Amino acid sequence: MTADPATGRGQAPDRFATTRWSVILSCANSGTNEEKARVALAELCRIYWRPIFSFVCRRGHSVQDAQDLTQDFFLMVLEGDLLKRADRNRGRFRSLLLKSLGNFLNDAADKRHARKRGGDVQFVSWDDWMAEAPSQLTVSAQALESWPAERLFDLRWAATVVEQALRRLREECESQGKLRAFDALRSCLGAEREDVSYPTLSRTLGVPEATVKRLVHRLRQRYRSLLRDEVAETVADPAEVDDEIRHLCAVLAAGASETP
Question: Rounded distance, CA 23 to CA 120, Å?
Fold first, then answer.
């Protein structure tokens, strides 16, 4: 038995192989079920398009050019040999994408002369994606102007992971009839205990402080579990989850500290 990356409880050894990144790696390594791997890869790209777009913009491309180049990159990933070159030793989908994106942009000038960007396929539906998952993270002008592209990529990646977990938690609360509690307590999920005003939240929700404390505790536990789930989808080994979470939290903290 191994530990479940979301709960820490015992689980069957093949549980982790069901994450998207592990599906991609296992299919690439075995050379079978490539369609299943492509579906998993397409879903990861759909979720994590914003860090790629931010990276391209920071490298000096206009918004329109960055949209085209991001779409080109997705097509290259899905149609190229990235799956065959994927290596468990690289571990993290974030790292592989960043390295591949840098190489892609270095060759972009030649490629844009060789063919029309995006070909005849539109992989990215910008309006749909931005309406579906607007970013809740505001990047300061200082960060946009001074941070290198690689750092902005990690910042947007970390924000996406957090937003995915929060979105799932909100949906769960809504399905349980607890959306009002989620909206009131969401700001507590990442706050220090001393920054949480339980009397104020008690008045807002119309419940005793002891009830508020229990709700906050349960939401925090579930949020951390969902966050681990999201990170687990992008690493090849469950042993990497904690390190990846620490890295992403450090990136977010650095980004917040530079917000005016």
Answer: 28
| Alpha-helical regions (H) of 115-148 | 126-132, 141-146
Q: At a CB cut-off of 8 Å and minimum separation 6, what does 136 contact?
A: 159, 163, 166
The whole-number average pLDDT for the span 210-215 is 95
Identify each DSSP E strand in the chain by its residue range: 2-3, 10-11
Tens digit of pLDDT for each residue in 215-255? Answer: 999 999 999 999 999 999 998 888 899 999 999 989 888 87
User: For residue 236, what are the domain limits?
Assistant: 2-257
C-alpha span between 236 and 21 (Å, rounded): 6
Total domains, the chain: 1
How far apart CA 37 and CA 24 sit, in angstroms, is 4
Global pTM value: 0.78
Pull the structure tokens for residue 259. Answer: 């917000």
Residue 55's contacts (CB-CB under 8 Å, 6 or more residues apart) are: 98, 101, 149, 150, 152, 153, 156
CA angle at 223 for the pair 220 and 229, rounded to the nearest 5°: 145
More confident residue, 195 or 218: 218
Amino acid (one-letter) located at 14: D
Rounded to whole angstroms, the Cα distance separating 37 from 39 reads: 5
